[in-house]
Design goal:
Largest interface: A-B, 187 and 188 residues
Shape of chain A: globular
Mean pLDDT of chain A: 92
CATH superfamily of the largest domain in chain A: Copper amine oxidase, catalytic domain
CATH class of the largest domain in chain A: Mainly Beta
Strand content of chain A: over 45%
CATH architecture of the largest domain in chain A: Distorted Sandwich
Oligomer: homodimer
Number of helices of chain A: 2
Largest sheet of chain A: 10 strands, antiparallel
Number of strands of chain A: 26
Helix content of chain A: under 10%
Number of domains of chain A: 2
Amino acid sequence: MCSYLDGTVNLYMRPEEGVTVAVDLDEMRIVGFVDRVTVPVPKPNGTDYSGLQKRVGPALKRIGLVQPDGPSFAVDGHMIRWANWEFHLSFDVRAGPIISLSLIYDAEQQEFRQVMYRGFISELFVPYMDLTEEWYYRTFFDAGEYGFGLYAVQLEPLRDCPENAAFMDAYIAGQDRKPIKMSNVFRVFERYAGDIRWHHTELGIPGKVIREVRPEVNLVVRMVSTVGNYDYIVDWEFKQSGSIKATVGLTGLLEVRGSNYTHNDQIADEEYGVLLAENTLSAPHDHFLIFHLDLDIDSDSNSFVKFVFRQTPVTDRRSPRKSYWSVVSETAKTKSDTKIKLGSEQVELLVVNPGKKTKVGNRVGYRLIPGSITQPLLSDDDYAQIRRAFTKYNVWVTPYNTSEKWAGGLYTDQSNGEDTLATWTQRAMENKDIVLWYTLGFPHAPYQEDFPLMLTLSSGFELRPANFFESNPVLRVIPPGVVEWPNCSIPSVI
Amino acid sequence: MCSYLDGTVNLYMRPEEGVTVAVDLDEMRIVGFVDRVTVPVPKPNGTDYSGLQKRVGPALKRIGLVQPDGPSFAVDGHMIRWANWEFHLSFDVRAGPIISLSLIYDAEQQEFRQVMYRGFISELFVPYMDLTEEWYYRTFFDAGEYGFGLYAVQLEPLRDCPENAAFMDAYIAGQDRKPIKMSNVFRVFERYAGDIRWHHTELGIPGKVIREVRPEVNLVVRMVSTVGNYDYIVDWEFKQSGSIKATVGLTGLLEVRGSNYTHNDQIADEEYGVLLAENTLSAPHDHFLIFHLDLDIDSDSNSFVKFVFRQTPVTDRRSPRKSYWSVVSETAKTKSDTKIKLGSEQVELLVVNPGKKTKVGNRVGYRLIPGSITQPLLSDDDYAQIRRAFTKYNVWVTPYNTSEKWAGGLYTDQSNGEDTLATWTQRAMENKDIVLWYTLGFPHAPYQEDFPLMLTLSSGFELRPANFFESNPVLRVIPPGVVEWPNCSIPSVI
């Protein structure tokens, strides 16, 4: 595919539509050439995003996060310790960050307890909804075909992170088998956004007002990967409460197609894509990210449980109410219990340790709070969909199998779908080492605001303790001190 | 209802179950007394959340947000100006914060443009799933019955907000008709969490690496309201990109019921609630918040549009693909088009100005990106559900009517449901002044970690420009400067 760079550094905005060149990379020779259509190259106006362009508007005043006593975490090789957490952070050329061996210190039981054996992004799938010759095959697997880690960008201190970040390098094998150092691919930092961890004001006690509030400060591991035009920001966030949150932000350049159209009124029949600027169409597409989440709650003998919120009609006049809902627990036993489509019923999904209970007899566990819930919109017999059948359910559960890591197949670009998550045998899985798979989906119908560069759109999920602790684990935790900046003042009220 | 305070300040954790006292408030005299059941009062152990309790664990180091040059916003009476935004913030004893007259400056058109005429929380609904005599009627309307503004708490500088906050007072009418001042009910501050507004690294141009990144800095208006045991944190957040985001955080104390049970094994039949500690049951419940969102996109002549993402099978061999999806636009015309249940199909919901188009012919608009999507779990004939029938759809659209503000009825505690949103006539509404209603739902099945005090659980929605601007509106905006703290250092790597 060819792009024209005149008037912009944004090569994705000026495609030479319909021009395809076949190159023999061994011989470095052009072996074929097709010029299929003649449409204008989109105009460069307003597409250059580089900092050299003229800037407009008043600047916001300086703002920053400071920790005058330094950060509260320690990095020891690949082990990271912060507050009540410790975990291992490693880099994979395919998956990017891998969080493993995560343990949380339980202040009541006075011991470290297992939470997540391993968590990572197993695959990304980005199919475009344009069936023209140069586009129909654009159904990218960004991990398996490109390498989500391979395209990690070098993060810069004080540019895209608060000052209190630590950086970590990674090494990959070069094509000549020599190690290549990738600098600053991870940053680790404490996140404070002015959010409130918990709050209560009690006015109900005569003669007293009790007001308690604690700030939310968390630990974040960040990687940014640029796979072609799109940039993905991946944050793994750890909370003192025991939650692990993963957030993915999508930003970067749109892919667009050159076109004769300069106005919607000229489009009579259906066209693949939306007109974003003169001669510039952009096709709808999806971003699916599937996470491999191997929780080990207090051991690797776990079960997958669905809490169904079920309405019960009341007909026996025991109450003026006619209904209520309660929680019905269903433990996954058969294959069909382990493929979950969310949205139709109100459920909570848990991984529990059936061998361990709290003092009052609840099974200890963690629950998955999903973010965006997306259904695939391709037909089952579409080759693209056959290869990414893992998108068909929002959540899957499999027994742990060391060879079952890559939801889109081990050699993704050669896979016909037969070695993907959707085909893996679902064996008995009560009280076993199980893996949870969650697909985070972003269907993307472009708007003009995404042109030429899309602002970060984020979603993710949370793994939250669910009867894992006997009670609120951070009720008595000492909060961080307050930083007072010497010369600050509150704004004048006119 | 009675509570026992011995051993804790947490009066919600020690209910005297089954004891009901009827009091004549004019005569200040007890006129009735029922002691229906005899169950133990839950133990006080671990339920005191006050700061006087012994604290545990190592403290995190000091962390803070600083703006050495002061904040970038200005407060002029009730008008707030920040970056490209201006809006009016007022206080309502029932709704809490009301955002109105919001305008955004369009740097390309060099004019202020209308976005939201008025946005506020119209009602909160919190029904408990316990049908015993003292509980079945607990189906609270926190705005209409209590006053979400009335229970706003006084926010304290540097305690529950970053240093750069401005505070605003409110006045309400006392029962003697004299004004009562409520201090510091709102705080306004700039939010910086180390997030990335946009990023792109370009590796595709031979001999060059272009890397651009901009930090995300937004303006937030916050109010915290404590209605009995629960505390709600309401954030209205404004972005330079044109987005308005509302986030509600739920925190505070659980309501619990005394019980004879000390272990789950003793519970033979179904019981209302989950055992969280010895003698302490807690019933599932919902939190529904319905937002009144009166968008006026460039005027008050607007239409409601649904973008449906529709799969199209491909059978004509024009492509090796067998399917794709495209966006089908449906403008609401009939009553049934204005009640939306989300979850079953992939849609985007927009308010557009049919009289105004972008240069290439897209209708200017804003879209609603919903957060949690919840269906009610009470039967339609339940009196509680009749009164809160507005929860039956996730989104409603009504033509603007000055008397239709309160989704749960004007005099909520006397309403039988006949004056609520679900009954309002849906008249013609193309190219009219329309109001969008969105219900944010939190079904809450308690876990032991919520005992005695629940950590903040947040959700919300975003109103995002959708072909409102000709292109990305912040591409060339000057980013805020970097704050370098003099004595900072990155953590030592061991």
